[in-house]
């Protein structure tokens, strides 16, 4: 059953209970008022005209009201009844000298009486009044109350249905919006209503939830697309060395060559390239999903350490670190991951900048960021290459990159790690002039001054 129908039923039921209680209370009060007046008349009559013997005369002018009955009971048990209507009240429960009581008729008649009695000497006088008029008035009052209650409940039901339907119109709008969203229209939103109302709060909460859901869905779609591209690229990259391994194996098995050393050397080279690719894939996966062990990191000290490692890996090559800050450049990050970022950038410059290229790491502070620039004076890149340089498996020269052992994932790993630290990385390059990678990381706000002269090492 719809909610609005339930609400109308509840309103009608509660109102009906209230009207019924009100009707019972009014009827009870009216009954007490009428019976009080009857009792007052009975007491007055018993002390007045009921003692007058002229009521037994045939003179019509001296008779009491027609709805009264007077009974005189004598000591010998005989009685005289005046205004006998044919049905007399039962007197077995009437207490002489007591208050007025309600008794039924002596017989099968449904008539009710209000009776009082009094003894004076040897004579007991009983005065009774029929309650037909009062009962008729009470029944009429009850009928009027029933009719009014039915009309009131009908009006309440109609008004309640109208106002409840009007009040629930925003919920129907929410329902329609939810249906459209379920149908695929993720850009739909619930109309905004005043936040002071319950519907307004519901609409705000739903819109916030829908925004987060849409963002989650879009992120999931992006992740799915990245995963498909990732699997496709990885399959393509692994297919080439596997084909080479299989080709050299078939070459040797077919007897086309008997140079075992050459075949094993080629297979070993291709295996190393596959191993490097797998390691880079694992490194990229860990970079995207790993939790960072963040702590304050001195980028100057870290850069000097990375430069030392690069000189050991590339003997005879020039790697210089320049501190352009007036204080210790400290960021909140994972030392191992930031070490990997700098080492990848320096290695990239030494590997692809040319055999005579030298790399300079410059540290500066710009606003709220610590900026690390890794620049080489090598061969540089064209704008087309720089626009794709951070993409997975991208190579400027596939043959040269494979020969040098590159997988095309190093800079993608660097970008992922930098962004996971809340930073950004960009590249500027010109053919024949060199390449500069700029890494921006949020400054932790350390104020340790090292001096005004930049450090060069």
Automatic annotation (TrEMBL):
The lineage of its organism: Bacteria, Bacillati, Actinomycetota, Actinomycetes, Mycobacteriales. SUPFAM superfamilies: ATPase domain of HSP90 chaperone/DNA topoisomerase II/histidine kinase, HAMP domain-like, Homodimeric domain of signal transducing histidine kinase. Its main location: membrane. Residues 233-445 form the Histidine kinase domain. Keywords: Kinase, Membrane, Phosphoprotein, Transferase, Transmembrane, Transmembrane helix, Two-component regulatory system. It holds the Pfam family HAMP. It comes from Corynebacterium suedekumii. Gene3D superfamilies: 1.10.287.130, 6.10.340.10, Histidine kinase-like ATPase, C-terminal domain. Residues 165-218 form the HAMP domain. The chain crosses the membrane at residues 6-27, 137-164. This is histidine kinase. Its EC number is 2.7.13.3. InterPro entries: HAMP_dom, HATPase_C_sf, HATPase_dom, His_kinase_dom, HisK_dim/P_dom, HisK_dim/P_sf, Sig_transdc_His_kin-like_C, TCS_sensor_his_kinase. SMART domains: HAMP, HATPase_c, HisKA.
